[in-house]
Specification:
The chain has a domain of about 140 residues. It is elongated. The N terminus is likely disordered. Helices cover about 80% and strands about 0% of the residues. The protein is mostly helical. The termini are far apart. Helix 1 crosses helix 2 and helix 4 runs antiparallel to helix 6.
Length: about 200
């Protein structure tokens, strides 16, 4: 009798994964606003009733994906000691790389369409807020300087990763992470260490 809940849980996980995968593939082909429940159900090889067992509509799928991505990044940022990262920036980018690797298909499909920029913008804004909260809780920096650092770091990071996905991931993700880490913190380190 104890195995029944596990079986149900696996089925739920498998179905939700199929729905999310279908959504991410569709997001590479059309505007997010044009994706319908019917589109997702057909691509996931389920019926619409099954879709509605898990979600109220397409935007609930989007919200769940956004929230999971943002929570994963926020958790990674909150666990980082920025006084250490200043001297070893690869710690931050290794964590971000691990998060991207966990949902690389979604990121890949999302980055392929310019029309999905509202979702990307929401992720960017949330990441900037989380970065500012994490840094300001550990290092004294003026709000204006922190805004500039967050804009530069997150905006640059997302732009590089979007280009990387568009180039069909020619450079290994770990190599890209190391390059972005060095590039970002060689410049930002000087600013943060000379804060006044």
């Amino acid at each position: 009798m104890e195995s029944a809940p596990r079986k149900t849980d696996r089925r739920v996980i498998k179905t939700k994964k199929a729905i999310r995968s279908a959504f991410s593939h569709l997001a590479a082909e059309k505007n997010i606003s044009d994706i319908t429940v019917k589109d997702i159900a057909e691509r996931a090889d389920i019926n619409r009733k099954t879709f509605y067992n898990y979600y109220d509509g397409v935007y609930q799928v989007i919200d769940e994906i956004e929230n999971e991505l943002i929570t994963a990044f926020a958790t990674a940022l909150s666990e980082i000691d920025f006084t250490v990262v200043i001297n070893n920036p690869s710690l931050l980018f290794d964590r971000l790389t691990n998060n991207i690797n966990r949902d690389i298909d979604f990121y890949s499909h999302l980055a392929k369409r310019e029309e999905n920029s509202s979702l990307i913008r929401k992720i960017i804004n949330t990441l900037k807020d989380k970065l500012k909260q994490s840094v300001s809780s550990q290092i004294t920096v003026s709000p204006e300087l922190l805004d500039i650092v967050a804009d530069y770091t997150v905006g640059g990071l997302v732009a590089v990763y979007q280009s990387w996905f568009a180039s069909r991931r020619k450079v290994p993700l770990e190599t890209l992470s190391q390059i972005v880490s060095t590039l970002t913190f060689e410049g930002v380190n000087g600013i943060l260490m000379n804060r006044g």
